[in-house]
Amino acid sequence: MDSSMNGEESGIKSEPKTEEKNNDEQGIEDDQKSDGKSEDANHEHPDAPEGDDSKATGEIFILDVDATELDLNYQRIGKIGTAELDRLQNLECLYLRWNLLKKIENLENLVTLRELELYGNQLTSIEGLDTLVNLEMLDLSFNRITEIKNLGNLTKLEKLFLSANKISKIENLSHLKNLKMLELGNNKIRVIENLEELTNLDSLFLGKNKINTINNLGTLKKIKLLSIQCNRLTKIEGLEELKDLEELYISENGIEEITSLDQNVKLKTLDLAMNHITAIKNVEHLVELEEFWINNNKITDWRCIDVLAANTKLTTIYLEGNPISKDPNYRRKIKLAIPWITQIDATMTK
């Protein structure tokens, strides 16, 4: 018998749906699609089910008590009942995306859970997870959560997704020593703080917040990916200790100059698009650089492109939206300066 079930197979009662929609994965591309500057930013995802509680059923019927995976996405569930779920003694993955849940409850007996997805519900608080000590992945994105709390027992957690909530402060994470990925994009965070103990973190997403300074990252020496797009930064700083950094996404800010990357020699991807940069400089030492996004800035001097002759591994460059891109020989000049380039903007070179 197959050890996984979806909502239909488990006998879930649900309202008929007129349209089946796919849910895009969150991440860097998600960070690029909104300016996140509004104080009252709308966190409702376009795929979210309508919040009419009268249509929520919350009834789950289990066909396979030995299932290790249960998919209940898009089922209009308004409440998690205990009777059926308590029979799932081997359940490792529970997916409850895009339902109508307002509270995390009645999961305490699912102690074998490793993955729990509650993305796109109506949750306002993190609770009811104390006994889920084997959780390795928790996704609470696209809810209405205002505070990070009640995660103290989840010491095996490796991935935590809290994007698109209403969180204003980074806190209560210091005990998550095994955390490798933390997604806090699209919230109301103003200060990078209280991350010092997360020394195993390798991916940190802080895009679409209200941060004006990069700081307090010095102990996170394993970080390979940092996304801090669409904030209120005016300069690049605070990255000196991140010597293993391979991907830096810092587009849609107010940066005027490329500086302070001297120690980040392992960078492979650098995204500085949509800032106020007037010149390409201080990147010659980035000998591992493969992708460089500096489109939609204020670059006017073609001599800036000559600087990139030192970046011999560079394969992709985005320069569109700069004054130099209006030159009728734009692509040809780039190719002459960087003969090994394989992609200019969205088009492959010949």
From TrEMBL:
Keywords in UniProt for this one?
Answer: Leucine-rich repeat, Nucleus, Repeat
Q: Where is this region: Disordered?
A: 1-56
Q: Which domain of life is it from?
A: Eukaryota
Provide ranges: composition bias, Basic and acidic residues: 10-56
Record-linked SUPFAM superfamilies: L domain-like
Q: Does the keyword Transcription apply?
A: no
PANTHER family noted in UniProt: LEUCINE-RICH REPEAT AND IQ DOMAIN-CONTAINING PROTEIN 1-RELATED, LEUCINE-RICH REPEAT-CONTAINING PROTEIN 9
The similarity annotation says: Belongs to the SDS22 family.
Q: What protein does this entry describe?
A: Protein phosphatase 1 regulatory subunit 7
Question: Top-down, what is the taxonomic lineage of the species of origin?
Answer: Eukaryota, Metazoa, Ecdysozoa, Arthropoda, Hexapoda
